[in-house]
Amino acid sequence: MIESLAGQVGSVVTLQGWLQQKRASKGLIFLVIRDGTGLVQCVVNQSSVDEHSWAGASTATQETSLTIKGEVCADERQIGGIEVQVSSLEVIHLVSDYPITPKAHGVEFLMDRRHLWLRSRRPWAVMRVRNCVIMSIHNFFQERGFVQMDAPILTKNAVEGTSTLFEIDYFGSPAYLTQSGQLHGEVMAMAFSKIYTFGPVFRAEKSKTRRHLTEFWMIEPEMAFYDLDMNMTLAEDFLVRVASDALRDCADELELLGRDLDALRRVQAPFPRISYSDAVDLLRSDKTKGLVEEKIDALHREKSDLEEERASNKSNYGQLKEWKKRRVDAREIEINARLAQVQEALRNLPKWWRSAAEFEWGGDFGGSDETLLTWHFDRPIIVHRYPEAVKAFYMKRDPEDDRLALGMDVLAPEGFGEIIGGGQRADDLAFLEAQVERHDLPRKAFEWYFDLRRYGSVPHSGFGLGLERTVSWICGVEHIRETIPFPRTLGRLTP
Ligand code: 4AD
Ligand code: MG
Known about the structure:
The protein is an alpha+beta fold. It has three domains: 2-93, CATH 2.40.50.140; 114-275 and 359-483, Bira Bifunctional Protein, Domain 2 (BirA Bifunctional Protein, domain 2), CATH 3.30.930; 288-355. The chain contains 15 helices and 17 strands. Strand 1 (12-25) and strand 2 form a beta hairpin. Helix 4 packs across helix 6 (228-249). The protein is globular, with a radius of gyration of 27 Å. The two termini are 28 Å apart. 34% of the residues are buried. The model has no long low-confidence stretch (mean pLDDT 95). Bound molecules: 4-amino-1,4-dioxobutan-2-aminium adenosine-5'-monophosphate and magnesium ion (MG).
């Protein structure tokens, strides 16, 4: 495989893969080959291969599948510090008109062809980071004695409110796709002490934002005898571990994505812990106003720099060599994409500031409020003790202030916002029964859940981490749809 070639300098190897890029000059063809594990440049020299191999290399097009034999040579200037001097080449399947060309395409175009787009470099890097994050999560919990257990997907219970339930017909009676494994997680924690679930969950989110999917993966640890503080400390250790594993294991992928690695290096304990009430004050403060103004200035500067660069690239375009033109074209596409983002941010920021300044105690934070809050800090923050009215029915009340629930959210820095939601669970039967009624939930469907409070009830806590939001943050990828192989959103159910 390509990823292990660096250790095979001097030996002759056989590679099987696909052609990603090709360049030819007199008597030489340079093929960039992809095999899923990495990329390598293969050099075909007309004088050192037979006619059949030369013809194959000459006709091969983008995404043509190939078998290549050749010697691995060290070459610092090439990807991975090596290249392959080809001795023979066999075309397996010749492609005509691969729809995704090296020129840039819009995201919708690419998402419609997600089944092919996954072969490109950016999705490759994001999915490898996703894999690393998944391994890191399992290692973290396994090393601490948590038992991984699965919650059902088909359920009778609403966990996170009734407005985002996907209802299905279960042999003539209604059932739902689960919104969260938490309630079953609590059951399993009473049986196994510390457990975590790792599974798909579903939310009929009607919102079209960069943070919402209708199907996503959630990791939900649940611990007997944990209070809110212990829960926050666990969440903190957990995220420190995920970020540091990604830095260690995915350096190439993160670099390819242009991730600011220093931002990830700053993910160190302790994370600031601020109460909801303090967060509201901060949101409405002049400090937030100052940050917004600074950001607007910075965006204006970036905008004029980009426009200047674009104009100077265009000015001598006519005189450029073909390969240089292609590079300028690619850069222009990047510049335009970034300019669109900058302009959108410039339109949004005044609105964000206004809604932050007018934020009233008691409401839930919107995406923009979270973004503004994160700008005050250089690492993730934990916001705790929310008004009970904006949190789920199962949360324990703050014994110090009955208006508050012992919930917590972790907000990822750099504007990414909520990646974890959780808290301490109500452990009193009468309180929980009253909550189910108050929230208009069908009592019968919760009898088994009440049993936990009938038989050996203990203080317990847990949280849920959204995998895709976490991968977005780790990768520095703006939109969540790029962080799952096949995103499901309000407007997308294919491929
Ligand atoms: O905050 P949420 O709704 O919390 C729960 O579901 C709890 N029952 C978890 C628990 O305590 N065991 O969701 C948890 C996390 C969010 O912080 C976010 O990262 C992610 O799940 N999430 C979404 N990710 C993508 N698309 C959506 N529509 C999401 N909704 C929540
Ligand atoms: Mg939440």
